[in-house]
């Protein structure tokens, strides 16, 4: 990710993160994909009414889909409001989808959404990552590193 892309993510009014992903997985490669949305879904996302808890991506017939992404119904939507949890199509290049599909056929690898943001043109985008699952001792190591960083920060504030 270059500096321009990083700036877009920081300026975005919406940053919906999958906080658990960094604890559960090692990130190998990251990609940015568009999301195919219907009707009032984009309005709910702009209000920050979406969640990436327990989501994952899969490939069917050369198309990438995200499963488990929750977008709350739009408050002002009428009878044509959207379904809260449904599979949503992701927009990636064919080569990227093929690379991700072949990688996920290996055991221990999966594709996880990390972040939903709005780009400079007002479109909803999602950052996804090819991930390898952490073992129990890896998770303990991550918690230990986090605790050490926290203690160092506290020690620096006292001086």
Strand count, sense and closure of the main sheet?
Answer: 7 strands, antiparallel
Note the overall shape.
globular
Low-confidence stretches: none
Number of helices: 5
Helix content: 25-40%
Percent of residues in beta strands? 25-35%
Global Rg: 18 Å
- Average per-residue pLDDT, rounded, comes to 86
Number of strand segments: 9
Placed side by side, the strands forming the largest sheet appear as: 1-8-9-2-7-5-4
The end-to-end distance, rounded to whole angstroms, is 36 Å
Class from helix and strand fractions:
alpha+beta
Topology pattern, helix = H, strand = E: HEHEHEEEEEHEEH
Short summary:
With 159 residues, the protein is α+β, with helices and mostly antiparallel strands.
Compile the SSE list and pairings.
Elements: H1 3-11, E1 15-17, H2 21-24, E2 25-35, H3 41-46, E3 50-51, E4 56-60, E5 63-67, E6 70-71, E7 88-91, H4 94-104, E8 109-118, E9 124-133, H5 136-158
Antiparallel strand pairs: 1-8, 2-7, 2-9, 3-6, 4-5, 5-7, 8-9
List keywords for this structure.
alpha+beta; 159 residues; 33% strand; 7-stranded antiparallel β-sheet; two-stranded antiparallel ribbon
Describe the structure.
The chain has helices at 3-11, 21-24, 41-46, 94-104, 136-158, and strands at residues 15-17, 25-35, 50-51, 56-60, 63-67, 70-71, 88-91, 109-118, 124-133. The chain has 159 residues and is of the alpha+beta class. The strands form two sheets. It has a seven-stranded antiparallel β-sheet, sandwiched between helices. A two-stranded antiparallel sheet has the order 3-6. It is globular.
């Amino acid at each position: 990710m270059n500096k321009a892309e990083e700036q877009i993510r920081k300026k975005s009014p919406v940053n919906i993160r999958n906080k658990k992903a960094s604890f559960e997985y090692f990130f190998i490669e990251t990609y940015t994909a568009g999301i195919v949305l219907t009707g009032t879904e984009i309005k709910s996302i702009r209000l920050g009414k979406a969640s990436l808890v327990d989501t994952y991506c899969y490939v069917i017939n050369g198309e990438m889909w995200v499963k488990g992404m929750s977008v709350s119904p739009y408050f002002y939507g009428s009878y044509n409001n959207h379904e809260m949890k449904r599979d949503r199509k992701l927009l990636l290049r064919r080569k990227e989808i093929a690379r991700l599909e072949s990688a996920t056929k290996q055991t221990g690898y999966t594709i996880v959404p990390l972040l939903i943001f709005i780009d400079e043109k007002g479109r909803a985008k999602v950052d996804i990552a090819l991930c390898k699952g952490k073992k129990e001792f890896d998770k303990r190591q991550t918690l230990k590193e986090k605790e050490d960083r926290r203690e160092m920060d506290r020690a620096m504030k006292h001086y």
